[in-house]
Amino acid sequence: MPPKRSLDEYRQKRDRTRTPEPFGETRRRGAGDAAHCFVVQQHAARRMHWDFRLEIDGVLVSWAVPRGPSVNPKEKRLAVQTEDHPLEYADFEGIIPPGNYGAGAVIVWDRGTYRSADGVPPAEGLANGKLDVELNGHKLRGRWVVVRTKRGGGKDWLLFRKAEGLAPGPEPVLAHPSSILSGLTVEELERREERTDELAARAKEAGAPRRPLKAGGLSPMLAETAEKPFSRAGWIFELKYDGIRALVAKEPPVSGLPSPASPAPGTVRVFSRTRRDITETFPEIAASAAHLPCTDFILDGEIVAVDGRGAGSFERLQQRLGLTNPAHVARAALEIPVLIYCFDLLAVAGHDLRGLPLITRKQLLRRLLPPQGIVRFADHIERDGAELFAEAAARHAEGVMAKRAASPYEDGRRSRNWLKFKAPHTADLAVVGYLPGKGARARLGALMLGWRAGGELVYAGNVGTGFDTPTLEALVRRLHASERTTAAFRHAPRAVGRNARFVEPQLVAEVRYTEVTSAGLLRQPVFLRLRDDKTIAECDEVPGGRWETGDGRRDQTENGTRRKTGQNRRASGVGLPSPVSRRVPAPDTRLRLTNLDKVFWPAEGYTKGDLLKYYEQVWPYLAPYLRDRPVVLTRYPDGIEGKSFFQKNAPEFIPDWVPTCRIEDTEYFVCNDLETLLYVINLGCIPLHVWSARRDALDHPDWAILDLDPKGAPFSHAVAIARHIHRLLTALGAPHFVKTSGQEGLHILLPLGASMTHDEAKTLAEVLARLVAAQMPSLATIARLPSARGGKVYVDFLQNGFGKTIAAPFSVRPRPGASVSMPLGWGEVNAGLDPARFSIATAPARVRRRGDPMRGVLEAAIDVHAVLAALSEQLGSIL
Questions:
Q1: Which of 46, 229, 252, 256 sits CB 3.0–4.6 Å from 389 for a disulfide?
Q2: pLDDT at 544
Q3: Nearest to 692 by CA among 742, 778, 606, 751
Q4: Which of 577, 612, 569 is nearest to 592 (CA)?
Q5: What's the gap between Cα 645 and its chain centre?
Q6: Are the C-beta atoms of 109 and 92 separated by less than 8 Å?
Q7: Which residues pair with residue 81 across a beta bridge?
Q8: In 10 A of CB 192, how many CB atoms?
Q9: pLDDT tens by residue, 6-44
Q10: Which helix (H) or strand (E) holds 49?
């Protein structure tokens, strides 16, 4: 049996009267608890290092890692085992005073939970000299190993990440240097930086009055429901999170002694949307917010429970709701970790920010919060809401929030300055009754539902599917206890009313549905869950203004044939704001498609309409590569066998709503929305050639490219070279991606994250191309002239540079068969690869089925200098 852990050495090295470090006791958890905590702390002691700590047998078993953890599986980092630390140390962030053991600044660089990945209990693995664990942190995730070496008298271990078939990303100690609690770097903490004065000055300059706010007396601002996502200047767009709304408040310092009514300075409390104090239920949020480097603030955000993949799960969050017993909460915090995405700042540093524009409040909020951690900044994009919605729908997110950038904060009000789009169609509706069923479902066959319409409820239809047995039993008990003799809603069909059992509207149900009929009834509804965190007043309004009250009341009978309409009746499409910029005019004047039956591919019979339909189908996947990127056109007004011409400049006659960007003396199209893309294709453009840089960072490309051009050589040789490059870059830990060119070749892209100049990208590509040509002289060449290639594949690095373009992923090519430039997984790059099979006829189904394996080129970034040094060394050894 492994020896019992002890904190004796820890205590012997420290004087509790001279250091702020915690002095806890060994605390054993239940044997059945599978999740344990881990923490990584950056420590600026005599030498900078990172302390990697795992909870084992009631203590934090600790290793000092001089260079910090690396995500490169080939990079094994020395980890020197030190004394065990108390569990409370996982929350310690501060400065150990001079003269004490380990003097210097300490930040919580990462924290989370871990589980045994190989089934061996952690205590046993520690005794055996190998811990194979699955980390679930804010920065470190996946499978990691700590293994003891034969050196260092048993104190020297190695820490490394298991490969798992994944290419490494940027080194986290460089890419993410700040604390997950305070957002400060260890250097900032060492300088004792604090942001209260800075935030106060910025708030005052923006015009915020100096006055205290009490979070307990505030209610969150609420959003209206809208049906159709949009892109529009003057608006910002955020992801809609599947959690519960909360305000997090750190009270400003007050004079006198603390009391329940006047908490001690620095006390953080968490309030629900109904003003209930839920700090006991989510103590980790309060503890994390207490570290933020400001004396007082009020944050608005959404509490989310994350699953093993890092995605939000309301089902998991429900298991946390209502817990107050400290032991139960502590266990739940490990098993069901939560975080809060904060998207607004109501007050800071003694200033009331509610009257400031939203975009100003978010700028102050970004300065206050860390980008990662339990309390984190909820990012947004400007203008491109339709694109974000498409991405959210593709990733099965709950939806998107649209907010007017200039709007003030209207606490407690539902405002049209904030709109919500759910993806797919879901609604939160009042349970207004139920219908008996048959057989095992005799007591409950279906729930009757109601929309909110002004101050009333109107009938929304019934839902009878989606229930599990525990939910049915719970519903029956709650419904029977709230029955009433009359309906609390309007417009129920008479046939339903004969069998209905009416109830007091107290429960809120979330349902999924396909559409809403003209009578306001749900089609194909499915019950998802009860929303105990919402009230009837927070149910969704009937979409499209189908029911209205007041002077503009419109009445509809159950058959939809009788209406009364007042002068103030709203138009269909409730929640859509009026156009505010030249980029989004009224839909009926925005886009005119012409000559849809014109044949563009005579052999196949594909028309211009087919081309437009293809681009519309792949838009959600193509959009990220086009956003804010100059596009160069090649137009084929009479199809691929007619005359064509190259066009950089957008013509003078384009509508005002089509976005462009001017670079030197050229006005380029920028396809930031589907309508602009279809407008461009309607001009007769077939391929889309894009810059490697975006318009706000034209000198810094997002990728470097090698174009494998096999003209005069077998395509199988291009495949062989691509596979060789794949092995070469994988060995260096450099992420890289591949796609067909859409013609005869292959494109290999290395993500740069806009961190280099075009010349540096070209240098990287050139060294790689020369190395490949030197290592595979019988297949590859860098000779530019076709006559000098000798039947070899041309490894072209000259497509890198300012203003150079490539065929965008998913771009159609003007060739027989209507081939498409298709992103590939590396497993597809083999002897059976045939680029011709990817066409406008086959690509949409493939993309819907397999997604985009190349998307990481916009998200990852290689360690350019390390890769370039390694490639240069290999090339030098050959030459």
A1: 229
A2: 57
A3: 751
A4: 612
A5: 40
A6: no
A7: 63
A8: 10
A9: 899 999 999 999 999 998 776 655 444 457 899 999 999
A10: strand 48-56
Residue whose entry in the numeric block shows the structure tokens 């306001």: 520
Q: Residue 123 is encoded by which pair of tokens? A: 């205590």
Report the C-alpha gap between 417 and 223 in whole angstroms. Answer: 7
**CA–CA gap between residue 360 and residue 363 (Å, rounded):** 5
CA 320/CA 277 separation, integer angstroms = 14
Helix count (H) and strand count (E) of the chain?
Answer: 19, 43
- Which amino acid, 813? R
At residue 411, what are phi and psi to the nearest 5 degrees?
A: -65, 135
Q: Residue 240 catalytic?
A: yes
User: Who wins on pLDDT, 140 or 592?
Assistant: 140
DSSP 651: P
Q: Which helix (H) or strand (E) holds 626?
A: helix 608-626
Q: What is the largest CA-CA distance in the chain?
A: 92
H or E element in which residue 43 lies: strand 36-44
What does R_g of the chain's alpha carbons equal in angstroms? 31
CB under 8 Å to 325, separation ≥6 — which residues?
A: none
Contacts for 716 with CB less than 8 Å, ≥ 6 apart: 831
Mean pLDDT of all residues in 89-108: 94
Task: Judge whether 20 and 106 are in contact, CB under 8 Å.
Answer: no
Query: Residue 151 and residue 317: Cα distance in Å, rounded?
Result: 46
Task: Report the distance separating Cα 353 and Cα 356, nearest Å.
Answer: 5
Q: Are 793 and 715 in contact (CB under 8 A)?
A: no
The reported pLDDT for the residue numbered 354 is 96
Q: Mean pLDDT of all residues in the chain?
A: 84
Three-state DSSP state, 156: strand
Q: Catalytic one among 139, 240, 250, 762?
A: 240
Provide the sign of the torsion angle of the four alpha carbons 547, 551, 552, 558, taken in this order. positive
How do residues 658-674 score in pLDDT, each as one tens digit? 888 888 778 899 998 89
- What is the structure's pLDDT at 29? 56
Say how far apart CA 725 and CA 627 lie, in whole Å.
29
Length of the chain: 879
Q: By the 8 A CB rule, do 677 and 613 touch?
A: no
- Whether the Cβ atoms of residue 816 and residue 845 lie closer than 8 Å to each other: no
> Average pLDDT of 208-217?
90
CB 630 within 8 A of CB 690: yes
Q: Cis peptide before 424, with omega less than 30 degrees from 0?
A: yes
User: Which pLDDT score is estimated for 874?
Assistant: 85
C-alpha pair distances (Å), 135 with each of 116, 138, 140, 161, 527 = 9, 9, 6, 10, 34
Contacts of 230 (CB under 8 A, 6+ apart): 385, 386, 402, 576, 577, 584
Closest CA to 198 of 212, 184, 187: 184
Q: Which segments of 799-877 are extended strands (E)?
A: 805-807, 823-824
CB-based contact 782:789 (threshold 8 Å): no
Per DSSP bridges, beta strands 104-116 and 94-96 are: antiparallel
Residue 676: φ, ψ to 5°: -65, -40
Q: CB–CB of 502/454 below 8 Å?
A: no
Distance of alpha carbon 277 from alpha carbon 246, whole angstroms? 10
Tokens of residue 415, six digits: 């405002």
